């Protein structure tokens, strides 16, 4: 009788140990899942300084103008050759993207142009041209291109309706300087008083 009770107690102890082990494993799996999710997901914060934070560091866009983009009012059609060298006030937009990488990680960011809702010139009449400063000189990274909005939100985070100007993948901390120009294409039929405004945003995610 005593032997049966001892066997029964032993079985209960083994069952209790198995339950404890299973519970520990489930908690461990849950913790790993949460860590993996927080690492892989880009968390966008709407800040006034144009910065976005991600689990591996942060991406920020700095600019000096009050408008983070370009606005055209009553402009005349322009050839690509002239548009690419526009230097007047408000004819180009300089901005800097700072990428901070923490640890052994990588991130991807997109530069997106977003059309203002009050724009009245058709997208097909607008040309955008993006340059990047390389070794002290600005070089083309996107040739003159008609504003072409994406239909759906991109995997990186650029919203539907925006135009992706450049996609960059980084695994080290860096500072990238860009210059954007925009003009009305040469053969466009323009009506007096028409306007077009784009704002530039940067979106990113951890890889």
Rounded mean pLDDT score: 81
**What is the β-strand count?**
11
Distance between the termini: 63 Å
Strand content: 35-45%
Radius of gyration: 27 Å
Quick gist of this model?
Helices cover 21% and strands 42% of the residues. With 207 residues, the chain is of the alpha+beta class. Strand 7 (126-134) and strand 8 form a beta hairpin.
Textual characterization of the structure:
Helix content is 21%, strand content 42%. Residues 25-48 have low confidence and may be disordered. The longest helix is centred in the first third of the chain and has 39 residues, at 2-40. It is an alpha+beta fold and 207 residues long.
Give the topology:
Blueprint: H1 2-40, E1 42-43, E2 51-54, E3 57-62, E4 69-73, H2 80-83, E5 92-101, E6 107-115, E7 126-134, E8 137-146, E9 163-170, E10 174-184, E11 195-206
Antiparallel strand pairs: 1-2, 2-3, 3-5, 4-11, 5-10, 6-9, 6-11, 7-8, 7-10
Main features:
alpha+beta, 7-stranded antiparallel sheet, 21% helix, globular
């Amino acid at each position: 009788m005593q032997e049966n009770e001892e066997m029964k107690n032993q079985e209960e102890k083994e069952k209790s140990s198995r339950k404890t082990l299973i519970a520990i494993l489930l908690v461990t799996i849950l913790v790993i899942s949460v860590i993996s999710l927080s690492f892989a997901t880009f968390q966008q914060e709407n800040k006034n300084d144009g910065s976005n934070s991600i689990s591996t560091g942060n991406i920020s866009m700095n600019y000096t103008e009050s408008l983070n983009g370009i606005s055209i009012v009553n402009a005349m059609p322009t050839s690509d050759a002239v548009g690419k060298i526009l230097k007047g006030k408000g004819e180009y937009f300089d901005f800097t993207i700072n990428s901070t990488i923490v640890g052994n990680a990588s991130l991807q960011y997109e530069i997106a142009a977003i059309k203002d809702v009050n724009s009245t010139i058709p997208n097909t009449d607008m040309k955008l041209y993006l340059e990047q400063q390389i070794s002290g000189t600005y070089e083309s990274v996107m040739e003159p291109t008609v504003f072409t909005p994406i239909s759906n939100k991109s995997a990186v985070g650029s919203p539907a309706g925006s135009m992706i100007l450049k996609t960059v993948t980084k695994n080290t901390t860096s500072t990238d300087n860009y210059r954007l120009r925009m003009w009305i294409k040469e053969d466009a039929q323009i009506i007096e008083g028409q306007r077009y405004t784009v704002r530039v945003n940067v979106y990113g995610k951890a890889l």
